[in-house]
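Students often ask what a 'structure token' actually looks like in practice. Rather than answer in the abstract, let us consider sulfate adenylyltransferase, a protein of 414 residues. Its sequence is given first.
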Amino acid sequence: MDILRFATAGSVDDGKSTLIGRLLFDSKAIFEDQLEAVERTSRDRGTEYTDLSLLTDGLRAEREQGITIDVAYRYFATPKRKFIIADTPGHIQYTRNMVTGASTADLAIILIDARKGVLEQSRRHAFLTTLLRVPHLVLAVNKMDLVDYSEERFEEIREEFTQFASKLNASDLTFIPISALHGDNVVSRSESMPWYQGPSLLHHLEHVHIASDRNLVDVRFPVQYVIRPHKTEFHDYRGYAGQVAGGVLKPGDDVMHLPSGLTTKIASIDTFDGPVTEAFAPMSVTLRLEDDIDISRGDMICRPNNQPQVAQEIEAMICWMADTTKLTPRTKLTIKHTTRTARALVKDLHYRLDVNTLHRDETATSLSLNEIGRVSLRITQPLFVDDYARNRQTGGFILIDEATNGTVGAGMIL
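Now compare that with the structural description of the same chain:
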């Protein structure tokens, strides 16, 4: 059974947490004692209905303020598919949390309040999800019950957002009118909106096609660990463990090792459950090769005629995540790209991007917390990279502060 990872985004009070609560509740993914606790808290607060948003807002500060601050991950499953939800915050000061939640998502749900329409935050979240190359985008127009389930209002929002999305790189865009509070079009089709002929949100999540989103063309296998068991019966075993980042690998395939450029063939592919006849992203496997090559962590196995770029100078869009320091030219950082860690120097900051207006400020001299900009980096060791648009694994990296060892930035290679 495959897994769909999806992130929810939207402005404050658009009902993201309520929507997730409704999905969990209507798909029978919560326990009775959880529901009782939520009902009790709702009663204590004097709300007339069961506040399902309490199922996801786990931090005490979130419950007290009634907002989402951190990225909350929730898991549920239906007979068709398993789901991992990243409930991301709406506030502008939590842009980094939104980037974290959306970076691994197959799909993003952007909620829009039917009364307020497309807000600056809606545009910002749409831009961020397309910048992070989330393949599928769902625009859920929420609180339809508060505009009398008006088809006209839904079409207005759809038209406005479609115009904005035409400037972005949005490939698959779906619009669904919902009421998370009452459950309209969330798990089952709504009788209040007979004019809407499309699927319910859960039906769409269950059936959206994600297998072809992964890059199955370019073979990329970053080596994470070299396995040399010390037991006597396996004394000649030498395997290279890691997670497939792209393409399809089979025993007998010709492969090349980077950085050496030496070629060999795959002898076998092993997993925890035994050998397999093929491996593809995002499987974790161990490759055994026919020839002995000096391979270590951080190296890359690919096809001889389809190699990533070997680069020590890269251009990237960076979301800065540190609240105490700024990113400026000449800053020295540690870069972690796939399984390779090296040191990096910020050569140049080309521009800072205003995520609300998409304006490029070329006079900017630094990036502060939650700001995004285009940067040139020089790296001490060669990295094996692809464009982020082509492969999110080999095109993405994180930046680490050498003094504190904290993650201070996330980057997408251009």
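One point worth highlighting: Helices lie at 16-26, 32-45, 60-65, 95-102, 120-131, 151-165, 201-207. Ask yourself how you might have guessed this from the sequence alone, and why that guess would often be unreliable.
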